[in-house]
Amino acid sequence: MSIRLQNIAKHFGTSRALEPVNLDIRDGELIGLLGPSGSGKTTLLRIIAGLEAADREPAGRILFGDRDVTNLHVRDRRIGFVFQHYALFRHMTVFDNVAFGLTVMPRKSRPTSGEIRARVHRLLEMVKLEQLANRYPAQLSGGQQQRVSLARALALRPEVLLLDEPFGALDAKVRQELRRWLRHLHDELNFTSVFVTHDQEEALELSDRVVVMSNGRIEQIDTPDTLYRAPTNRFVFEFLGDVNHLEGSVRDGVLTCGDARLAVDLADGAEELLLRPHEVELREAATPNAHMPVTVTAISPVGAEVRVELEADWLGEPWLATVRHADYERLGLTRGMRLFAVPRRWHRFPDELSTTKPKELESA
Ligand SMILES: Nc1ncnc2c1ncn2[C@@H]1O[C@H](COP(=O)(O)OP(=O)(O)OP(=O)(O)O)[C@@H](O)[C@H]1O
C-alpha cells in the first residue's frame, strides 16, 4: 500500500507542529521518521494513522493507494500500531492478546475460531514466542512483550504498520534484536511500515528511506547511504553523526587556524570545514598539504574501530578520529602522544541552500 501526503500541516492552538509537508511512501517500503525531540515525527505519524486531524487550512490530503483516507476514521484505515509502551492487556495471555483484534471483528468478517487459532500460532511462531503462548505479559521480558505487540498488530493483516519509538524502552542488545525482527517480518509479510525514532543508528540501519525532520519540517528524504554521503544541509549532516569543526581563514589557498594549516581550493575569507571522525587520518609527520599538530587525550579501542580523542591549541572543541585497529597498533597510540591530523576529505555548508560537496584531498 503506497501512502501519499499532500500539503499536510498541523497547529496546536497557535503553535505550529508541522509545516505543510509532502511525502510519498512506496508500497512495501520501510520508512523511518527521524528527528530531535519536538520536530513533529509523532504528529506526522498520528496524522497518517488518523489519530490526529491535519489542519483544514491548507486543505491537505492523505492517500492510501488510490483511496483518499483524509477524512476516514482510524478504524477504517486498516493500520497496525506498535507503541513504545507495550499496551498489552495484562489480564490476557500472550495468545489472547494476539487473538484479541480478530475475536472482536464483526461476525460477518470474523474468521472461525479454528482459523484464529491457526493464525495466532503462525504469528507466535514468526516472533518465536510459541512456547510462551500461555504466559501473561507480566511474565515476559520487555523485548518479548514488544514482540507480542508486533504479532498483535500483524494479526489483522494490516496493509500499513505504524510504529512510534517501538524499541525506545529497551536496552541496546534487545533493540538490535528487535530491529532484525521488524526488518524480517516486514520483508516476509510485505506491508508498508513507518516508524518514529530519534536514534540515528536505528533509522539508518533499519529504513529503506529516512525522513529527517526538524522544527516541523522535512529536511531530507533519502536512502541511508545518500543521507550520510550527501546531506542537503548542515542540520542533516550534524544530526546524522559525530562532526569535527575546523574554523579559520583562507588566504592564497591556505586555511590557517592558530598554528594549523591546510591547503584548500577555496576563495579568501572566513571558512568553516566539517569532518566526520573517519575522515581524519592520523600520521606521525605533517604532509605538504596539512600541518595540524594534535595530542591524543583519550583512546577507546572497543568495537570495530578505535575512537581517538584529539586536542590542540588551535582547536576550540576536541576532535574525534576513528582509526582501524591495525593503524592503532602500527602507530602505537597512547594517551599524550603527539601526532598530526590529516583530513582525508571535508564538507562545508557556506549557506543553508547549498548542498555539500565532499572535497577529496588527493595528495594530502
Ligand atoms: N497535543 C498537543 N498539544 C499541544 N502541542 C503539541 C501536542 N502534541 C505535540 N505538540 C507539540 O508539537 C510539536 C511536535 O511534537 P511531536 O510530538 O510531533 O514531536 P516529536 O518529534 O515526535 O518529539 P519526541 O521525539 O519528543 O516525541 C512539539 O512542539 C510539541 O510540543
Automatic annotation (TrEMBL):
Keywords from the UniProt entry: ATP-binding, Cell membrane, Hydrolase, Membrane, Nucleotide-binding, Sulfate transport, Translocase, Transport
Keyword Manganese among UniProt keywords: no
GO molecular function, one term: ABC-type sulfate transporter activity
ABC transporter domain mapped to chain residues: 3-240
Domain of life of the native organism: Bacteria
One term under GO cellular component: ATP-binding cassette (ABC) transporter complex
Top EC category: hydrolase
Enzyme nomenclature, EC number: 3.6.3.25
Protein name: Sulfate ABC transporter ATP-binding protein
Species for this entry: Billgrantia montanilacus
Gene: cysA
